[in-house]
């Protein structure tokens, strides 16, 4: 097996410290919130993979269609010799990109999960032994330093995960991505699009209840990591379209008044009957809005591609 480089810039205890801070801050304020990054323990990642195969959850299929149809244009427009992928490249999305980027020399997957990175790197090197892989264990929302690799770079942030960031966070994130890019580098961004409310809500509240299990799983993460005594079934899954913010909100609603103890934080958290804990926003975009947010970060939208049903978009932008 050809070796690959693995660099950790995330301190070993960063995840634990961040979870403690997020739970303390998020559950001590009104309305209560938790950041969606905590969904993705092993069980949560498994449930998300299941979500991507659900009939109601169109984003993965829609993005795959664009990637396959437009791979040649993406490669021609970027001319990339290095692909940097924010968020683990374990998924097949990466393969469609790598297939298209004929001159590629280096692949730089970036993720907080070492196991996801190792899995992605080993799988890709089996298929592409000529590729140079340099994986980064890092939180890409906390500023990145990329390894020296041949340019130009294509930075890919796919899946619509940009939508999990609140507008102010997106502005900071896009500026940090812009600072990574040199002239000639490009950003490939996946964004889910505004559409009928019932289509959007169904994608986050599937009939099989997989998304409900995914949502409740964050309570099990807090129980396991911080010794809390959440009973996930005490909370009902809620998916709601926020027309003002143009985002889907996932929430967990307490079925009755209850109290949760979190001994690791010396915290007792009361919930009134019907009180909701917001666990995720998933923003939906319009072309002009994306163009404006990229421009505010110093990026110029050069290409906008949507799937045949106008559900999802990939955009390529330059500095
Ligand atoms: C992986 C963040 C893009 O927001 O659609 C799927 C996560 N949440 N179902 C999304 C998710 C509920 C997904 N992203």
From TrEMBL:
Chain residues that bind L-histidine: 57, 164, 204, 280-282
Gene Ontology MF term list: L-histidine N(alpha)-methyltransferase activity
Domain named Histidine-specific methyltransferase SAM-dependent: residues: 20-317
Pfam families per record: Methyltransf_33 (PF10017)
GO biological process, one term: methylation
Enzyme class: transferase
Known pathway: Amino-acid biosynthesis; ergothioneine biosynthesis
Keywords: Methyltransferase, S-adenosyl-L-methionine, Transferase
Reactions this protein catalyses: L-histidine + 3 S-adenosyl-L-methionine = hercynine + 3 S-adenosyl-L-homocysteine + 3 H(+)
E.C. number: 2.1.1.44
Positions bound to S-adenosyl-L-methionine: 87, 93, 111, 139-140
Protein's UniProt keywords contain Methyltransferase: yes
PANTHER family: ERGOTHIONEINE BIOSYNTHESIS PROTEIN 1
Family as reported in the entry's similarity comment: Belongs to the methyltransferase superfamily. EgtD family.
Role description: Catalyzes the SAM-dependent triple methylation of the alpha-amino group of histidine to form hercynine, a step in the biosynthesis pathway of ergothioneine.
Subunit structure: Monomer.
Protein's UniProt name: Histidine N-alpha-methyltransferase
Protein source organism: Streptomyces drozdowiczii
